[in-house]
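no rush on this but wanted to send it before i forget. theres a chain ive been looking at and ive put its sequence and its fold in token form underneath. i want to understand how the tokens follow from the sequence so walk me through it. thanks a lot i owe you, the record is right below:
>
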Amino acid sequence: MNNSAFAFEKTLKNRTKKEILADKLTDMILTGLLRDGDELPSERELAQLFGVSRETVRGGLSQLTAHGLISVSHGSKTRICADDKAMALFSSAHSDAAMPEMNHFDVDSVFEGRIVVEAAIARRAAINIDAKGIDGLKRLLEAQGKLFDAPVHFQLSDQNFHKLISEYANNEILLRYAEELYAFGLNIRRQVMLEPGAIERSYQEHQHIVDALMRGDPDASERAMLSHLDSVYRTTKTKLNPSRS
């Protein structure tokens, strides 16, 4: 099993890893996960996060620089450029760029879909996951435990946490559905992650999922995943409709 975030994508249309990475980061900007002025993790951290080389990271970032979506200053952090001017220039040059299709649906429909898809993924992953996959999840958990005050970095890690589990379902269709469903409302999730205790709660829910996967228990893995999704759904719903909470 390939633990890279590119396991099912690197052969598509002969696209390079740096092109795929650039597209992923662009999508995070378009969805609002990454916002104007945000600092990106270091090249080393991005390489670990996406399971690619630092050379690939540099290549992907150079493409975003060319698109005007990031600024890189010597001796300082790489920052997102997503103000009105930058986004207008990008949109005019990339008319095919659009928000993920999932953002056109309501939150209830999306999470009903996530429940069906990710419950199946959790069960299959519990059967198929190997020591390498467990080690990958443990490394992500170790990193997440240090990100309670870094919502953007945590969300990037969270995306890869769910993706790695999805890869071990050994079903490319389920993987693609899960990725599309995950993209729903990332701007809202970012707001949720800013609330006190939100990241730590999500981290603890991730621990329960990994514990169940380590035991190879499909029932427990499904329960842990559904409990996590219920928490994500409730907090997202509350943020979307604060007057009804």
Summary: The radius of gyration is 18 Å.
